[in-house]
Amino acid sequence: EPEVTQTPSHQVTQMGQEVILRCVPISNHLYFYWYRQILGQKVEFLVSFYNNEISEKSEIFDDQFSVERPDGSNFTLKIRSTKLEDSAMYFCASRLDRAQETQYFGPGTRLLVL
Amino acid sequence: KNEVEQSPQNLTAQEGEFITINCSYSVGISALHWLQQHPGGGIVSLFMLSSGKKKHGRLIATINIQEKHSSLHITASHPRDSAVYICAVRSGGPDKLIFGTGTRLQVFP
Asked: Which residue from B41, B88, B98 is facing A108, i.e. has the nearest CB?
């Protein structure tokens, strides 16, 4: 069964460094999402992406964050200058089309900023 | 105040028990999702509801739009049902989901 994959599974970085989290959505899906979950807290929406542009973003998704679909298969989340509070699990998800509400989640990348 | 509230926060049950998890929301919604988060962190979508009731195997989800309330029921619970169950609503924009804090369920043999 097709699945969403994410790399790396874990990443440790120093505060101020740039990180890129990678996701490969299910191949025929058209909608892509990034979520984060700070340890012990609820999942939070970051951004949605459709037709090569951001369709919606949350107040968390400030200028430090960017998303890209560079090659038609990968979907990346870049954090330009990481802060301690960026430490969280980051989930990618994809969805087939507008008619299908079900989102398929990747296994997550655990980011630790020191 | 959270826009999506779940109760209880934690729930323990004996194998075979009937489980109910509740979700209340304070915003207008166009859809409500129930998700399962495994102990390792992975998230699986269980249901999407905009009205009425849905059933999948031993899981039943209901929603009452007027009362802004949804329930997830698990019949004949099993230890493999142990997970965090999350309610999320789509409100406002076409894509943004607002998540509840989750209900941690442990089912003992």
From this structure: B41
Query: Which of B40, B94, B99 has the CB atom closest to A43's CB atom?
Result: B99
Q: Give the H or E element holding residue B47.
A: strand B43-49
Q: How far A94 CA lies from chain B's nearest CA (Å)?
A: 11
Per-residue confidence band for B95, with pLDDT thresholds at 50, 70 and 90: confident
Q: With b meaning 16 or more CB within 10 Å and e meaning fewer, what string describes A1-37?
A: eeebebeeeebebeeeeebebbbbbbeebebbbbbbb
Q: Does A102 touch chain B (CB under 8 A)?
A: yes
Residue pointed to by tokens 């973003």: A57
From A48, which residue of chain B is nearest by alpha-carbon distance? B95
Per-residue pLDDT of chain A (114 residues; tens, 9 = 90+): 789 999 999 999 999 999 999 999 999 999 999 999 999 999 999 999 999 999 999 999 999 999 999 887 899 999 999 999 999 999 999 999 888 888 999 999 999 999
CB–CB of A96/A103 below 8 Å?
A: no
Whether the CB of A31 is below 8 Å from some CB of chain B: the reply is yes
Residue A15 phi/psi, 5° resolution?
Answer: -50, 135
